[in-house]
Amino acid sequence: MIVEAGHYALTLALGLSLLQCAIPFWGARSNDPVLMGSAVPAAIGVAALVGFAFVALLIAYVTSDFTVLNVVENSHSAKPMIYKITGVWGNHEGSMLLWVLILALFGAMVAASRHLPVRLKTNALCVQAAITIAFLVFILFSSNPFTRVEPPPAEGQDLNPVLQDIGLAIHPPLLYFGYVGFSMTFALAMAALIDGRVDAVWARAARPWTLLAWSFLTLGISMGSYWAYYELGWGGFWFWDPVENASLMPWLAGTALLHSVVVMEKREALKVWTILLAILTFSLSLLGTFLVRSGVLTSVHAFAVDPARGVFILAILSIFIGGSLAVFAWRAPLLRGGGIFAPISREGALILNNLLLASACATVFLGTLYPLVLEAFTGEKISVGTPYYNLTFLPILLPLMLVLPLGQALAWKRGDLFAVVQRLGALLGVSIALALGLIAFTAGGPVLAPLAIGLGAFLLLSGAGEIWTRSHVRGRPVSVAFRRAVGLPRSAWGSALAHAGLGITVIGIAAQAWSSETITAARPGTQMSVGRHTARLDSVRPRTGPNYTEDVVTLSLWRDGRPMGTLETTKRLYPARNSPTTEAGILTRGFDQIYVSVGEIGTDGSVGLRLYDKPLVLLIWIGSLFMAAGGGLSLTDRRLRVGVPVRARGGVAAQAAPAGGAA
Amino acid sequence: MTRKGRRLTIIGTAGLVLAGALGLALNALRDTIVFFRSPSEVASKAVPPGTRFRLGGLVDTGSVKRGTDQLVEFKVGDGATSVPVRYKGLLPDLFREGQGVVTEGMMSPAGVFVADTVLARHDETYMPREVADALKAQGVWQGDAQQQSARR
Q1: Minimal-distance CA residue of chain A relative to B120
Q2: What ipTM does this complex have?
Q3: Fewer Cβ in 10 A, N or C end of chain B?
Q4: Of A473 and B121, the one with more pLDDT
Q5: The pTM is what?
Q6: Percent of chain A residues past pLDDT 90, beyond the cut
């Protein structure tokens, strides 16, 4: 019964979305406040209905209702409860439902926000409803999760074992909040174009949504990366897999958008470009959804290959990207350029930031889509891998990171590059000394890695330096500087934190140049060395889990003769699908990790092992947590919450502007 | 600086950056792309040793030989012909005789494909698309039922 109710709620949500799209739009055209106001309850209603449908599917999973096809295909009564819950979105239909649920939640959040100009909010909710309609139609007509099966089987086929991991509870929801969050900036951009009004008020309205989506996307990508790192068993954290690229492209465009919105808010410049970026960012999110969900890619993310679905998503993609770009081409010439600035200025630096990020995004785009296009036209199958990105993506991002600290320190309108270089000179000196010291210390080792670590250190230090220069006054006690630092706008802290986080990630990635790998066959008692460590295979024992059996391989580790502890790596067999998985064993000490995954266990008792010594590897993800935290901190900035711009220069802390509800 | 001058500066910089990025990308594409070859194509086209490519097909039944120190030798075939492959390392969980596989590496002068990567697959019934197409070309494909996959 609840399953039919869920299906019915989805259909109802589609109907209500149609109303949410049409009536307020008409109201905005005829300036009727009542019709315009109807967008708010409609958006909240759609969210409630989709939420109900989602809960209905959740209940079907939790109670192992094997009359539902989706549950049969992706669940098993013996599966632990957490995976019954996460299994809801561990398949194509359920993940699309999660997608729409988050879309509807964002719509409801915009509807509930009291800080948006009424017309902007109304038009944005109309555009947002159009996206909801498209995806609800997609779900209802080609990916219905509520389809019944007759006769119902006694037992389900279980969830893909690779997905039976806590990562499935974390990575997809975060990623979708990011992907879908950019639909709000897209809707706001379209609304602004429809109304022909793009100004600082728009930028202030769009910035929180950009920050929110960006922070979630950062977390989603980074958690996905960590999941792949420990689950896939080959110790890599980024594979340049097309599906990873599909999430990286909106992140790069979103990062550019995040920065150009600031220019627009402060200086009313870059209007056309910012609107275009908002459209492109969400288009790339849609493209990502298409690439992942349509089955055009051979990847670990493709749930099912169904050409009809691919065509459907392609149609959605063309309508929204084509339509929005057409509206852009039609309305953009109406936008007037804003404040004048010198090339050497914060604005100039942010333009450079945007250029480099957009170029980096374009190279990823080319690398991801070129094989698909080539195959479609010539039938030739190629793959574009890490070497391509090392030759394109890195040379574009490195200068970006080098000029980042300078840009951050430049003044608006007209900056003094010489003074900035002088100010940052000490930090740059320390970083170069660090790099040179590392090169000398690791003589004969990699050369680029120490330089990259120096670059990371420069980013990290300049993040702290930015806070210092803004709060420190020569000749005043440290307590004053501390008080001023606390009083700095949250967005200043946020950007310093995020930039420092980027530095931390860069250090973590660069440090992998010193990681070492050992592949060997061992028996209980065998000793082997991996990097700076010695490992001994202790035992191989069978063990039984709730819905699997496994062979547990235990190892002890030493460093310089001192014991460091033991770790377990297991080879599991899930009988429901007769599929094996490998669970890597990871020993964390500080930021370093020792990573062991087990290969084949031979009949003669020999165990294939792959061991890695990975120095500072945790910094890669810790840095991304800093970035996301920086985004979150900026989000709490008072300026983003008040409806009217407040002039805040100098004694910011003294101004206690009334803060409204959550933005 | 005047509005016009500013615009010229921006456009000039943008042009430079974009041209640079395009140059990098085209250069990299020429040097780094890896082609996919089926065993029949390898046999008929004689890929020169030292060229990286991907070889995909079915692991011939009974061809897997395990040496010491994680060295594995097997044959990848597509029904018409087979290519011997040598790989040192851990094989993915779902590597089995008679199943689809994609390997990446180079031909040695002796005609053995020395692989440094054997692609991990995550479903027991999954068939890499390239392999499926190659098998179709050889006429040994047995329907699309096999292509249903349910992976992450």
Answers
A1: A232
A2: 0.81
A3: N
A4: A473
A5: 0.90
A6: 60
